[in-house]
Each structure stands twice: as structure tokens, then as C-alpha cells.
Amino acid sequence: MDYKSILALGLPLSIGLAGLGSALALGWAVGRAMEAIGRQPEAANKITTAMAIGCAFIEAITIYALIFAFSCLGKM
Fold first, then answer.
1. Which residues make Cβ contacts (< 8 Å) with residue 48, sequence separation at least 6?
2. Which tens digits make up the pLDDT trace of 5-15?
3. What's the Rg (C-alpha) of the chain?
4. What domains does the chain contain, in order, with CATH numbers?
5. Which pLDDT score, from 0 to 100, does residue 40 have?
6. HSE (side-chain half, CA atoms, 13 Å) at 32
7. What is Dmax (Cα atoms) for the chain?
8. What is the model's pTM?
């Protein structure tokens, strides 16, 4: 098995795992934020701002995985 076949198998798997992890983390973060807003509605603006920043960081990880996969795809 040469490195091209390993890349051909590993790249889609890595993107899929990054997407799955991102989806689970976003779902957990948004769910917890909604629970917090339900407990303290007066803090909704602070909670929403912190959640949005956290969600941006979570999405950035997925985008980095996609960029890495495309850069490795050029080496195939």
C-alpha cells in the first residue's frame, strides 16, 4: 500500500470525523446555552455572545481540517 492510497482513504475519514466532532460540540454548546438562558433570562445577551464566539472557534477547527485535506489532496 503506497502513500497515495492511504491519503485517498484517510482524507475523507478525517473530514468526516472533524465534521462529526464539530456537529456534536455545536449541539452541546447551543443546548447548554439555551438551558442557561432558560435559567437566567436577564443574562441572555452575555450568554449568546459567549456562545457565538465559542461556536466560531468550533467551526474553525472543521475549516482547518478541510483546508488541510485540500492541501494534502494536491500531493496525491
1. 33, 37
2. 888 888 889 89
3. 17
4. 18-73 (1.20.20.10)
5. 95
6. 11
7. 59
8. 0.78
